[in-house]
Design brief:
Layout: H1 6-13, H2 18-35, H3 69-92, E1 110-111, H4 126-150, E2 160-161, H5 169-176, H6 192-211, H7 220-247, H8 252-269, E3 290-292, E4 295-297, H9 314-321
Parallel strand pairs: 1-2
Antiparallel strand pairs: 3-4
Length: about 350
């Protein structure tokens, strides 16, 4: 497990073979641009002996109506605040350091439970606990990296609701997905399985979000960093899906719940019936086993017939985290006062 400084250390070492990899990333970026979406960004590294490379501060918006790299980074930062806060509370029982919350826009508080008391999962599986801590450190590093890249332009952490009580966003999401009854409560800190379902809700959205925003980026080092964090989020998602799938062998309700969450995400982002981005209708996939050529196989990777994951636009991602499928929504769900920055409305 690496400490909270790992991502920044790695980005400073990324130099060797950079030209070749940039060429590949630009090609991949062109393909992603045809699909549309947003980007969550962070760092990736290379050989230990490489000289340091500084990721340039994103350029401001040149004209009205356009989206700058700084806008994309700040949108990413808002989502990283959400993930980092959840994992930090789940793994350590505490939130982000105060110096990682300041910035432009209104700084908010984190709702974690009754009377705002800190939460922490009392893990019964040591492996799940170790995974939770590793993911928490990764997400904290993402926040640190994005804030460093943005400098004085970094958005403040907005108000976040990751509560496990009846008024919490997780309860609202679980009710919408029919994982629980309309009068029941979903507490993501109550058990290992609840934690994994909550993580599943976030991680799959993160992966589809990262895929779509390369067309909004122009700085080669930033594009390379985007590919790095996209890989990290994909590792996280695959890990969570694998744990849920393996536990579903003895607890089938986990597989059912994951499928219900996937269906709810499709409904919330508006693609279940419209087939946006040219990728068909119901694209989000659960973890239930499928039969291919007469043989049963797992569904850890939610890929299409070409083995390619799908993308979501910023608006679709906001629909999900706001827990509202309606157009022109500016707040709700996990962000009760909305996100900070230019990109904030569905």
């Amino acid at each position: 497990m690496q400490d909270e400084h790992t991502v920044l250390d790695l980005i400073e070492k990324a130099k060797a073979r950079r030209d070749a990899r940039r060429s590949f990333l630009r090609t991949a970026g062109g393909a992603a641009a045809m699909a549309g979406g947003l980007s969550l960004l962070a760092a990736c590294g290379d050989d230990d002996n490489d000289p340091p490379v500084v990721v340039p501060t994103p350029t401001p918006t040149p004209t009205a109506g356009t989206v700058s790299e700084a806008d994309v980074l700040n949108f990413a930062l808002n989502l990283e605040y959400l993930e980092a806060s959840f994992y930090s509370y789940a793994a350590f029982g505490t939130g982000l350091a105060s110096n990682l919350m300041t910035g432009t826009g209104a700084q908010g508080a984190v709702a974690t439970g009754t009377s705002g008391q800190p939460r922490g999962v009392q893990f019964t599986d040591a492996t799940v606990a170790q995974y939770a801590r590793e993911i928490a450190y990764d997400e904290i590093n993402h926040v640190r990296f994005l804030r460093s890249a943005l400098g004085s332009s970094a958005a403040a952490m907005p108000a976040i609701n990751i509560s496990g009580d009846a008024s919490g966003a997780f309860t609202a999401a679980a009710r919408a997905a029919q994982v629980i009854g309309q009068n029941d409560t979903f507490d993501p800190y109550a058990s290992d399985n609840n934690f994994l379902l909550a993580a599943y809700l976030f991680e799959d959205v993160g992966v589809t979000a990262y895929m779509g925003g390369v067309q909004l980026l122009s700085t080669p080092a930033t594009i390379e960093a985007a590919a790095g964090i996209h890989a990290v989020e994909a590792y996280h998602a695959g890990l969570v899906r694998t744990l849920l799938y393996s536990r579903g062998v003895t607890t089938s309700s986990l597989v059912t719940a994951a499928g219900q969450i996937s269906a709810a995400r499709d409904t919330l982002d508006g693609t279940a019936n419209t087939g946006l981005l040219g990728q068909g209708g119901s694209r989000d996939q659960g973890i239930a086993a499928t039969t291919v050529n007469g043989q049963l196989q797992s569904n850890i990777v939610p890929a299409d017939s070409n083995g390619i994951a799908f993308v979501r636009s910023p608006q679709q991602v906001l629909n999900i985290v706001y827990l509202n499928p309606n157009a022109s929504t500016t707040s709700g769900g996990f962000f009760p006062a909305g996100v900070n920055g230019t990109v904030r409305s569905t």
